[in-house]
Amino acid sequence: MVWNDDTVERLKKLWADGLTTGDIGKQLGVSKNAVVGKAHRLGLKARPSPIKRTKKEKDEKIRSVVDLKADSCRWPIGDPRHPNFHFCGKTAIPGKPYCSEHAQIAYVSSSRVREEEPAPAAPAATAPAQGAEPASES
DNA sequence: CCCTGATTCGC
DNA sequence: GCGAATCAGG
What we know:
The chain is an all-alpha fold. It has helices at residues 5-16, 21-28, 32-42, 100-106; strands spanning 76-77, 86-87. It is 28% helix and 3% strand. Helix 2 crosses helix 3.
């Protein structure tokens, strides 16, 4: 490996960028040892071993049932497998997991459902009352 | 055992 | 000075 100013600069860049020695080595075409060794000699280094890109990524992806209030209507909207799946969220009837509107649909008198009303994925009768667990991302 | 970085040591 | 081998932490 020829450590000219250019390569050294790239090394420092990648190193500062939070890349692991292995990744830097791949991008520079050298082994991780070469990277670590050079970094050591350059003076820079001293990073926690399993350095992780603690940057962004992640976050604001798992949200749906998690932020439901105790009185939020749990009527499912959309496909549970779809990222945009959510719940009605409107204020539910005290003691019930659905708002008045959806409660009518959920608690059909003679097990008969309105034709245009989709059956709830999680029936209120069997769904956990206030402890709805976020089962997304599984 | 996998990963990581740190240090050693022959070249 | 270089980096594979080796060591050590997680």
